[in-house]
Amino acid sequence: MRLLWSCLLLAAIGFLTTATPHPRNSSLHRLTKQLLQYYHKEVRPVHNWAEATTIYLDLCVHAVLDVDVQNQKLKTSVWYREVWNDEFLSWNSSLFDEIREISLPLSAIWAPDIIINEFVDTERSPDLPYVYVNSSGTISNYKPIQVVSACNLQTYAFPFDIQNCSLTFSSILHTVEDLDLRFLRNREDIKHDKQAFLNDSEWELLSVSPAYNILQSSAGDFAQLQFNVVIRRCPLAYVVSLLIPSIFLMLVDLGSFYLPPNCRARIVFKTSVLVGYTVFRVNLSDEVPRSAGCTSLIGVFFTVCMALLVLSLSKSILLVKFLYDERRSGQERPLLCLRGDSDVDESRLHPRTPHEEAKESPVRQEHQVQSGTLKEVWFQLQSINNYLRTQDQVYQQEVEWLALLYHFDQLLFRSYLVVLGLYTVTLCSLWALWSSL
Fold first, then answer.
1. Using CA atoms in the order 358, 361, 362, 367, what is the torsion angle rounded to 10 degrees?
2. Which of 193, 199, 259, 262 would bridge 266 by S-S if both were Cys, CB 3.0 to 4.6 A apart?
3. Is the Cβ–Cβ distance between 59 and 31 less than 8 Å?
């Protein structure tokens, strides 16, 4: 009985072994082993070494992740594709169960040494270790990458700025005699391809203009493919949060010119506007990207308007201080009629001895009293006349200063109108230019 069970067990094991095919017997395994058995990835895959290997490149911008104006860096997410022909990786598909395409490890085959010249950071991309190879030896290497590249970013027209950043692909060591570059698609198709771009970000993709050129150097001539990525900023959020409040603040400051120049309330009003300018300037510095070599046009106009405000405020302060000093100096000149010491002055001017006063008759004394009263009235009238003349001189000086400062105030007002008009016209022109692209 045990012998019978042993025979049945051996028969079941043999049947299972025969029914389950071994991986080494598969056509894919045999094909992969045959292709890589004598393959050397250190050698450029051509039979004739004088022939150049042509690499076909394609680029599709997926998203703009970050625009660092201060450090002049652009971070984008792109879909990158490489296609080339490997003459040592071709086979007859009829001998391998009509297998026309397989995947091979990228580390096991030769790959071109193509880099992006504008790279300023390590490449961040998913680790895709395999590439597709078809029966004719064409290799396709597709992968998404995050590119952090150097770019000359300009913020002069912020928030209506348009940036043009290039991604240049070239070989490090292979000259154009060994490795040539070509576009995988038509140039017009590459330029207007926006299907994969995410439009939910702050930036909008305008075009990706491709160009082919030869870089000549002492080491040789190198083929280059350049993709000019043109993007523009969506300005609506900045128009609502920056431009419209700045125009309102300038209009309020413009209205302060309707207050009299010698009015102290004007100083208080302009000081409050200056505080508003300062707070808005702090918010503006946080919102506007900072660049060492370029200043935004909004910042220039805002600084000019702030300078006009400070100049007008300083003028009003000096005017009030000058008028206060003039009036104070006029008030310190006393009226002789209010002193009540005209008799003392008269006695000082015409001193008499007691013996002479005793010899005078009563009529003479009465006549002298009337004459002293008339002289006292005369001195009072002279004092009043001198005081009125002094006040008239002070008033005339005030009128002259007020006329001069009124003209200066009108000059500032017109300058403010010109700056505000230029500011509005420039913003409208930039917006129209931005919309036309």
1. -110
2. 259
3. no
How far is C-alpha 107 from the chain's CA centre? 43
As its CATH architecture, domain 25-234 has Distorted Sandwich (2.70)
CA–CA separation, 66 vs 69, rounded Å?
9
Q: Judging by beta carbons within 10 Å of its beta carbon (0-12, 13-18, 19+), is residue 201 exposed, middle or buried?
A: middle
Tokens of 205: 């993709």
Question: CA 67 → CA 120, 233, 354, distances in Å?
Answer: 14, 10, 105
Whether the predicted pLDDT of 327 surpasses 90: no
Residue 120 vs residues 59, 79, 183, 227: alpha-carbon distances, Å = 19, 19, 24, 17
CB atoms within 10 A of CB 191: 17
Residue whose C-alpha is closest to residue 152's, from 162, 137, 140: 162
Coil vs helix vs strand at 421: helix
Contact of 160 with 433, CB cutoff 8 Å: yes
Token pair of 102 as six digits: 């397989």
CB atoms within 10 A of CB 153: 21
Q: What is the pTM of this model?
A: 0.71
- Beta strand ranges found along 129-219 (DSSP E): 130-134, 138-150, 162-171, 179-183, 203-217
Cα-trace Rg, the chain:
47
**Segment of 201-205, 206-210, 286-290 carrying the highest mean pLDDT:** 206-210
In 20-133, where does DSSP find H-type helix? 27-37
Beta strands (DSSP E) in 320-370 are none
CA distance 190 to 208: 6
- Provide the pLDDT confidence category of residue 323 given band limits of 50, 70 and 90: low
Chain centroid, CA 22 distance in Å = 64
Beta bridge partners, 76, equal 64, 147
Peptide bond into 23 cis (omega under 30): no
